Amino acid sequence: MLVIGIESSAHTFGVGICDDGKVIANEKMMFNISDKGLIPGKVAETHVKNAPKTVEIALKAAGIKIGDIEGVGYTRGPGLGPCLQVGELTAKSIAKRLGVKIAQVNHGAAHVEIARSAAKMKDPLALYVSGGNSQILKSSEKPFRHYEIIGETFDIGVGNMIDNFARAAKLNPAWGSTVAKMAQGGKYVRLPYTVKGMDFAFTGLLTSAIKMLDKASKEDVCYSIQETAFSMLCEATERALLLTKSRELCVCGGVAQSSRLREMLGMVAKENSARFGFASNEFNADNGGMIAFLAERMLKAGMDSNISECGVEQRYRIDRARIA
Ligand code: FE2
Q: What does pTM read for this prediction?
């Protein structure tokens, strides 16, 4: 089944095309992040401009015509309201024009499912880490197949924490990779570490790291904020591995592109006799391919929606999302 997926939850407008479980096109156009961060209305305006072109490029990359599309999926949430609406309208207009079915996809569930497929895993424990989200997830069949949140951040996502720190330290975008580069020359300075069971919090670490910029070098603070935040994620994930007795661990989401986090989680998995895996960076960054991938499975399982029911939900929690 040829399914087109539209992703627009944050600064990326992504269009992916999936054919029988294989992503055959994954194109995107992005809002250029300035030092002010994401202003939802401005990002949405850029998405409106980019939407038709991105769809066109994706169709070309897949070597198909719009009329070949047999189903549509889009990100219902979570994300920035005005940005999500651009994706919703694009998806609805394609579905209406072609008279094909439409599926409302949870962004986080799509990240986990594409990682699970790439890593060839059956039922992994998943660490989902991005700008706005940081959660430890395990699938559950009751009352329907979904991801249960067994650990999460009490405040902000790890990606936002690193971005906010990098802006305060006047580093260049893309902030996460700039912090990672600076960290290579640093040594450890003490920063707060907050893990409670399988949950964690990042604002205390952020505030202290910003204050620490007056006392220590940027390299040292970059190294220490990254090591502290990732160690917190690893401790909580290790506890979840022990609790669930899972033999598979995957990491997904924007921050899963960090080679240091992957290295640390790989060690945690090894010590607990679990297999570790992740998708390629193309699918850890926001992308339409993963939306098309999950939408295809949902449509095949009869989980489509009436166009009139389709909407967006800024805080669409993963544990309410039914997945196929
Ligand atoms: Fe994402």
A: 0.96
